[in-house]
Design brief:
The protein has 544 residues and is of the alpha+beta class. It contains 12 helices and 24 strands. It starts with a helix and ends with a helix.
């Protein structure tokens, strides 16, 4: 599979991948109350374990107990036998869905359940689970929609549950994102082929430079080199990075980092299973219910503060405005309202381009925010804007290696944990990070290790400055291929929620916000979605 690198980077850039392992500083959290992780509930009982084993000698790695909890949360049913033909996979053209126990009338607040029956290309009913569906209710005229939670019953049937949240019509939409057989392709290549994305390092001397291949692991392709390898270990986080050893320059001459290319090696059957004919397809069906108003329904009165559970659904759109069901969220329609909320705040944003969209939205919406020219990469930053009238400082920077980007100075790529360790924190400090998209091609343990290092840094920050507000932007929906599938993103997002569930932080659930919106799938959500994401973020900065 060959992809034009420049084209892919133009569309994608900001997606990350790397990770640390850390002994839970809140190790007792494994035995504490289990907060609800709604988007992680696929309720699997049969799974295929294909994860690479990682060393337990690393003192910064997560505890065995927590690792077991994460693996349980990420369990995914595997087909009982190997498939030999594409027509044996779940087909979006023969799979159907029906309304369970239909009624003559519905009111706002009611719950409806849809039963999905999976069938293969030969119209045979599937007898096992593992298909990855996305479900929503919507009303195009009202620009209304809500996420539906799908439960796998491991027998070829699934139920999608929806809450009726607006008056008028509500239409069911079910998409088959990946068949169970395609999921196994994604899982296998995630764990066994980390080199499907590779990077380039530039080494520079006085009058000579060399470009070599680099990656986050001492992988097979790196080991095949005649001179392997330069190894770089971050002094604080312990993060490792590897590059081919240059022919004429020392390892210390590494100065620039950039994207190398895409080189997934898929079999013909694997490629067919991930082909657009089988991927991200709406199921045939037409279920619409009419919803009457609810006289007794009340609005959300919970204050938007750290530590809240994420309900399912977490909210819904109506007239293109997101109403949170987690807390009393606000709308910030004017520049003055946004500036007033951020007054006297220093906001540090770290992550990928999906979080950079927040920085760009605020910069465009608030005229008093002035961007400084730091002569840095527009893709990886750091980027900075200030509002001297309101004493606002806004910074965004990429989360560090690995990251797919055009060539940038290595020195500009800082790890999140390092940045957090350097913060004093306090009531005027807001920390926001997201990390998932650039890790979808790496084995799960790589991501867990990165998260563990970040968590250690966040725990230390909140211990020395408990008034610091820390927010995590969840993964969002977008790509559907071997390099960045929604299923891969969902797995990483699930792991993040497990690892941070005991900390007093905020998780901004943009997974539901993107999966149910009417705009086309895009790793970089539309302006309408970004506005609602930022409004929810600001609701936690300035709760009422």
């Amino acid at each position: 599979m060959k992809i034009d690198i420049d084209d892919y980077l133009q569309k994608e850039f900001d997606v990350e991948k790397s990770v640390p392992h850390v002994t839970l500083l809140v190790s007792e959290g494994v035995e504490q109350k289990h907060k609800r992780l709604s988007v992680c509930s696929n309720n699997s009982t049969v799974s295929q374990s294909d994860s690479a084993h990682s060393s337990t000698n690393d003192p910064t790695f997560i505890s065995p107990e927590e690792l077991q909890t994460i693996e349980k949360a990420l369990k995914w049913p595997a087909p009982p036998t190997s498939m030999i033909a594409a027509n044996q996979t779940t087909s979006p053209y023969t799979t159907s869905y029906d309304l369970q126990n239909p009624r003559t009338s519905y009111s706002v607040g009611d719950i409806i359940t849809v039963v999905i029956t999976a069938r293969d290309g030969l119209k045979n009913s599937k007898t096992y689970g593992g298909d990855f569906f996305q479900a929503k209710l919507f009303n195009t005229k009202l620009k209304a929609s809500v996420y539906g939670e799908v439960t796998d019953h491991h027998n070829g049937t699934y139920t999608a549950t929806f809450k009726l949240l607006w008056e008028g019509q509500a239409k069911v939409s079910i998409r088959l994102i990946h068949s169970s057989e395609a999921v196994q392709v994604l899982l296998r290549h995630r764990e066994r082929d980390p080199d499907k994305v590779f990077f380039v390092g530039v080494f520079r001397g006085v009058d000579h430079q060399e470009k070599v291949v680099c990656n986050a692991q001492r992988s097979e392709r790196l080991l095949k080199a005649s001179q392997c390898c330069c190894e770089y270990k971050h002094p604080i986080s312990g993060e490792l990075w590897f590059c081919h050893r240059p022919s004429y320059l020392p390892c210390s001459a590494w100065v620039d980092h950039g994207m190398g290319g895409y080189q997934a090696q898929l079999s013909k059957l694997d490629s067919t299973l991930l082909h657009r004919n089988y991927t991200n397809k709406y199921l045939p069906g037409d279920i619409t219910v009419s919803v009457s108003p609810c006289d007794l329904c009340s609005s959300m009165s919970v204050k938007c503060v750290p530590g809240l559970d994420t309900p399912s659904p977490a909210g819904f759109y109506l007239h293109d405005t997101w109403t949170s069901l987690m807390c009393h969220a606000q709308s910030f329609p004017t520049a003055n309202q946004i500036a007033s909320c951020l007054k006297d705040k220093q906001v540090l944003m770290m992550g990928d381009s999906t979080l950079r969209q927040w920085f760009e939205y605020l910069l465009k919406t608030v005229p008093t925010l002035k961007k400084l020219n730091l002569y840095t990469s527009a893709q990886s930053g750091p980027l900075e804007a200030v509002d001297t009238c309101n004493n606002i400082r806004l910074v965004w920077r990429a989360h560090g290696l690995p990251i797919r980007t055009f060539m940038v100075p290595r020195a500009d790529l800082h790890y999140i944990a390092s940045e957090v360790d350097a913060l004093a924190g306090g009531q005027h400090s807001v920390v926001v990070f997201t990390i998932w998209a650039h890790f979808t091609t790496f084995p799960l343990y790589t991501y867990l290790k990165r998260l563990a290092g970040i968590r250690r840094a966040i725990q230390a920050l909140l211990q020395r400055a408990p008034q610091t507000l820390v927010l995590i932007k969840s993964a969002n929906t977008g790509y559907k291929d071997i390099y960045g599938s929604d299923w891969l993103s969902w797995q990483l997002d699930c792991a993040l929620r497990v690892m941070f569930r005991e900390l007093p932080v905020v998780i901004i659930d943009v997974w539901q916000m993107t999966s149910c919106h009417y705009s086309p799938d895009n790793i970089h959500p539309s302006h309408e979605v970004i506005k609602n994401e930022v409004d929810l973020f600001l609701s936690f900065v300035c709760p009422i």
